[in-house]
């Protein structure tokens, strides 16, 4: 899933490649992706691309006052194409959900695709005059890279959740998902199961510092990368997430995993839980 660093990098990529272009044909390959119908997606055609913005994990393209906003969800992505086919894509074929064709000032005709892998179709697209009219944007908490330390502490201690859950609660703090929350907690040396109200001042400050450093480093590594390379860049920077069974690069202990529902998270026992192995609900069910 693209999280805040990848969204910021995609935002910058579109600023450099799409702003100043004119929207041509908009091809909707999957009707289910559209969450608004008035104005229709075709209303974007002929408009200048005047800006790009983001709200948490939402990415928006300003087409002269009419916004195309997307949430890429778990398996979505934005793919840039320098020379797209002139023929419209066939609906329902492959991962393509929506294509926006462009005309640039230098006469090029690129396009960008919104795609989604897998069978669970959660990628969403809105066309709106006001981004805050998108319900999932209206509910967002402050951006994780913009929230102050004082505000962060107030938000954290104002809820009663496990810290892992709080970091990924978009209504609390916007932009952090499963992967970067694992990395933040590893850097902060905190258990994913720690309660938000049990964190003392030092732990809270450590968590804030880890959040800023982890996300800031990821943004620095990601901005300037070609859109196609961002997924690989994200994986390459992970110390524990997605590295179950590997050695922790900090202490050498084995990275462990806890699985639940259709998700999992990773952590280092030595760095984060005082050596304690957290209960894996998936394994617990199998052993009953």
From TrEMBL:
Q: Which cofactor does it need?
A: Zn(2+)
| FPG-type domain boundaries | 239-273
Q: List the residue ranges forming a coiled coil, or say none.
A: none
Q: Where is the Formamidopyrimidine-DNA glycosylase catalytic domain?
A: 2-119
Can you state which reaction this protein catalyses?
Hydrolysis of DNA containing ring-opened 7-methylguanine residues, releasing 2,6-diamino-4-hydroxy-5-(N-methyl)formamidopyrimidine
Q: Which UniProt keywords apply?
A: DNA damage, DNA repair, DNA-binding, Glycosidase, Hydrolase, Lyase, Metal-binding, Multifunctional enzyme, Zinc, Zinc-finger
Q: Which family does it belong to?
A: Belongs to the FPG family.
Q: What is this protein called?
A: Fpg/Nei family DNA glycosylase
Name the source organism.
Answer: Nocardia acididurans
């Amino acid at each position: 899933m693209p999280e805040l660093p990848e969204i910021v990098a995609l935002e910058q990529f579109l600023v450099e490649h799409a702003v100043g272009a004119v929207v041509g044909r908009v091809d909707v390959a999957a009707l289910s992706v559209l969450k608004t119908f008035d104005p229709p997606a075709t209303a974007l055609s002929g408009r200048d691309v005047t800006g790009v913005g983001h709200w948490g994990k939402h990415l928006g393209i300003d087409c002269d006052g009419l916004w195309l906003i997307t949430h890429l969800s778990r398996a979505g992505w934005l793919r840039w194409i320098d020379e797209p086919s002139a023929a419209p894509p066939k609906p329902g074929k492959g991962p393509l959900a929506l294509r926006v064709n462009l005309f640039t000032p230098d006469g090029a005709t690129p396009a960008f695709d919104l795609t989604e892998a897998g069978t669970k179709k959660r990628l969403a697209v809105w066309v709106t005059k006001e981004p805050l009219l998108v319900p999932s944007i209206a509910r967002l908490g402050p951006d994780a890279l913009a929230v102050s330390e004082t505000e962060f502490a107030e938000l954290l201690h104002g809820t009663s959740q496990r810290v892992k859950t709080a970091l990924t609660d978009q209504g609390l703090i916007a932009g952090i998902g499963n992967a970067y929350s694992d990395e933040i907690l590893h850097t902060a040396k905190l258990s994913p199961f720690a309660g938000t109200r049990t964190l003392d001042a030092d732990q809270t400050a450590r968590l804030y510092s880890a959040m800023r450093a982890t996300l800031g480093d990821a943004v620095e590594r990601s901005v300037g990368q070609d859109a196609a390379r961002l997924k690989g860049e994200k994986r390459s920077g992970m110390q524990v997430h997605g590295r179950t069974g590997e050695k922790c690069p900090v202490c050498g202990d084995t990275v462990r995993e806890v699985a639940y529902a259709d998700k999992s998270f990773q952590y280092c026992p030595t760095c984060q839980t005082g050596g304690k192995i957290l209960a894996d609900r998936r394994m617990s069910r199998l052993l009953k």
